[in-house]
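re: ur question from earlier - yeah i can do the single chain one, its not a big deal. heres the input i used so u can compare w yours
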Amino acid sequence: MKKFNIRKVLDGLKEQASSSVSSGQSGAPENNLMHETLQSENFQLCKTVRHGFPYQPSSMAHDPVQKILAIGTQSGALRLFGRPGVECYCQHESGAAVISLQFLINEGALVSALADDSVHLWNLRQRRPAILHSLKFNRERITFVHLPFQSKWLYIGTEKGNIHIVNVESFTLSGYVIMWNKAIELSSKAHPGPVVHISDNPMDEGKLIIGYEAGIVVLWDLKSKKADYRYTYDEAIHSVAWHHEGKQFICSHSDGTLTIWNIKGQGKPFQTITPHGKQPKDGKKPEPCKPILKVEYKTTRLGDPFMILSGGLSYDTVGRRPCLTVMHGKSTAVLEMDYPIVDFLTLCETPYSNDFQEPYAVVVLLEKDLVVIDLAQNGYPIFENPYPLTIHESPVTCCEYFADCPVDLIPALYSVGSRQKRQGYSKKEWPISGGNWGLGTQSYPEIIITGHADGTVKFWDASAIMLQVLYKLKTAKVFEKSRNNKEDKQNTEIVDEDPFAIQIMAWCPESRMLCVAGVSANLIIYRFSKQEITTEVVQLLEVRLQYEVNDMESPPEGGGGGDRDLPTPGAASPSPQTTGPPTHPSTSNTHVTHTVRSTPLKQSSGYQVELVVQLVWVSGEPPQQITSLALNSSYGLIVFGNSNGLAVVDYLQKTVLLNLGTVELYGSNDPYQRQARSPRKARQPAGGLCDINEGSASEDRCKSPTSGKLSFSMLELCVFSPCVRVLYLSVLSSTVLLSVCPPRGANPLDHRDNSFSRSRSSSVTSIDKEAREAITSFHFCETFARKGDSAITPCLYVGTSLGTVLAVALNLPPAGEQRLLQPVIVLPSGTLARLKGSILRMAFLDNTGTFLPPAFETWYEPNAAGADSEERDKARKRRPVSVSPSTSQELQESQYAVVCSEKQAKVIALPSQNCIFKHSITETSFVLRADVVQMNIGNCVACFCANGHIMTLSLPGLRPLLDVNYLPLTDMRIARTFCFTNLGQAMYLTSPTEIQRITYSQETCENLQEMLGELFTPVETPEAPNRGFFKGLFGGGATSLDREELFGETQAGKASRGLAQHIPGPQGLEGMKGAASGVVADLARARIALDERGQKLGELDERTAAMLASADSFGKHAHDMMLKCKDKKWYQF
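and the output i got, formated as tokens:
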């Protein structure tokens, strides 16, 4: 029975009442709203591709024929890499760590062994690999897996020391088992430990070498089912490697030694080497070193063999980085790595183990990187990695995603970014070059921008489901480097570990203007230029963005006149030659977080600093972190806000236009009864308020930054009264004081909003008591500033954490030179709407439902000279012009404002300001990210909720079109990095090192199968090495083994039933249903059906041919019999 909910009934009655009131106010335009083109059939949610370095890698494998690489992780993920641009992500359902990977070389299949003692066979011949078979061991723990080349029998070593054999075609266990007590000597009473190595003799497939952890190595004869030789060493074994001739093998041990053994000399090792141990002169054993975790022994036809090992360093090398050691002849090269080594593989020319290996590269898997070393060049240079594996080079703190960018943007970023590339890489091509690219139909440019903890900003080309770094910007270069002196050490208690971390980014793709806000409450505005310049003085604006309710309720000490609250014009100096910060009685304790460079700054082509805005400490209290940011290149304005208020900056004139507390935006119509904060709370640092929507102080870096001194041109600004707004405008070395009265005709809140404010939740009421109303959202637009306006004007819409949307009118001078001479007038214009929860997103539609983007300026070269400068001036004079409503439209609504908060979405008709549509997005959760996005055939609102639901709503009707429970919020990183963008694309940081891209577009889902790359390509297997005449005549070459006969059920019998459980994977049509969808799925099903039909027709042809042959044979025999008996009489029979 459906549960009755009285709240929903009341909400429905309230919504009906509000809609009836709004329709009565606005006449009848709502009945003539535009037709909505988007339907629920246009939306489908699916993952597209995952980029970045595999998080917490645990194992690796390489197919030398297909030239593809597989990496397994501790969370059960599989990442497959081919040529640059060919990547694939798979996930084991159990989520257990991948402990071993084995390719079926050149077969398009992969075997994975997990820590939960399961073994899986993956089919790589389809664009999205799927599991064909699984085998779950019940009694024994898997420790090692080995699959010989061109064999279908898989050896599985266990913790008990036993070895089981699995047929990879049927994934069934063989009855042939090598028990540990038969492998070791009968006289030995101790258990040899888990199996750490299994491999067959390169020259004799019937001989298997087994390494046990305790130090015992056994050469097992598969045919006779007994041990031929046993080799014992008093140190634990970590790995074993064969010489290609099969007469020697090498072991690595826990004391940092390598032992080389002859297979027929089982007493002592042939040679013992301690690569990093100090050799004592008296002939004693060298000092023990750290364990050698892995060794590989590779031979060359013309030179000395390679011995490559990880670990084995001396214990006295404290603090030394992890190393990979390459021993070649008499030379030993120690290659330091940035991170601990997880595994390494040597890439060789041949897949055959019984031939000269000819190694040419080493793939080293580190905890946070993938390195490929060129063995063929002197000095062992590394290859330049073409994969996007450096996303986590510094931790990602924020992301932005832009689809359908200007076509010239990616080439421009690539051209300046190509000059940043490091030198000294190997000159050879990247050796992992398998697979083929997909045939995608998407051609629009896509760009992802990531902000990082060290202050860097990276631009990525994300077009056609690929990812490639374009350009890297280091914002920390703007500031002075901190010196580790005594003063700094004294301040270490309040210094954040990442003071330059990027918090928010605002970017205009058309003008290429960029603004970044850091955790230390600073903003840097950048212009894009293709020319190098040297900036003598970095322009700096210093802003005191502090507002408290008790400031207006009680006058400062020494008198209570309103005139005394106003600073004098001399309190701020616009002169660029100012060498120190202006002083003011109320700011005797002013600090800044970073010191801007005092020396000339050489800026290479790319993004160059235009202006730095710095919030300062006031009266010992640090500035609150910036919670919202917006940029408009057409207006030349930057606006930012935090929990104190907002500031509008004119970056063309380098001035602050507006600096207001949030309460002052309401004027005399403040709907909230605010209480002054207690002095103790006023002294609290900014921790916990860095992101209003996240509510977690531990995830973000919000500690108080250090103080410093400034020596640049500054403009300072303070606001002391809610009734008088003081604006300082710097105009050619003169200071203009503007006194702006409270807005006339500020719209009083209607009775519906008042009743709503009284019914707010307890959490919002607590915010009221704290008198904290943060600025959470901005939107520049050309719309109606006030109710009933007849013409549109440039405006700034402001959203707050209490769900209020306020309008600010902008009076801009004409474009061109006048824009740089005349002041910009900024005037708050009243309240537009109120919603439940913090305002997240605002957008505007015209009366046909078309999305109205903010005005923008096209990009021009800022450092151009001559004819180029004329083009620049022409470009600067152009500004997009919005058409005012005609006389026939004046009686109707000509624009619609779309506002989305944490709880609701509203569509408001302008200029009547009537709410015509309202939708409650969630009651029990809250929205983390909302965007108004453009699809191919319409617009919609896309939302991601904290309960994991992804939803889309139609515009302007706010009808639910999609609601999928996709991803529960398990980490604040997801909330911080989730982004929607146009054309049905979205992304988030699924781990600290990986970006997951998803789509909510049905069209993209249907085409996804063709867009993905192919991992498997038909390649001929190289020929086996020639045995030679004498080896073929007298023996001594490689001998083969009939494993089918030896391990088959006929000779080996059946395996124990309870040992392992076989789990068949999705196959045939069922597997294809899960692998594809839509039209692609239908085509795939039809293709499979045709294949099956063709196969059946082929079988029918074979049967028909057999019947014809049988009939011919029968006819021939009948004819012969007739000839034989033709002349005989009846009595002769």
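The first strand starts at residue 43 and ends at 52. not sure if urs matches, ping me
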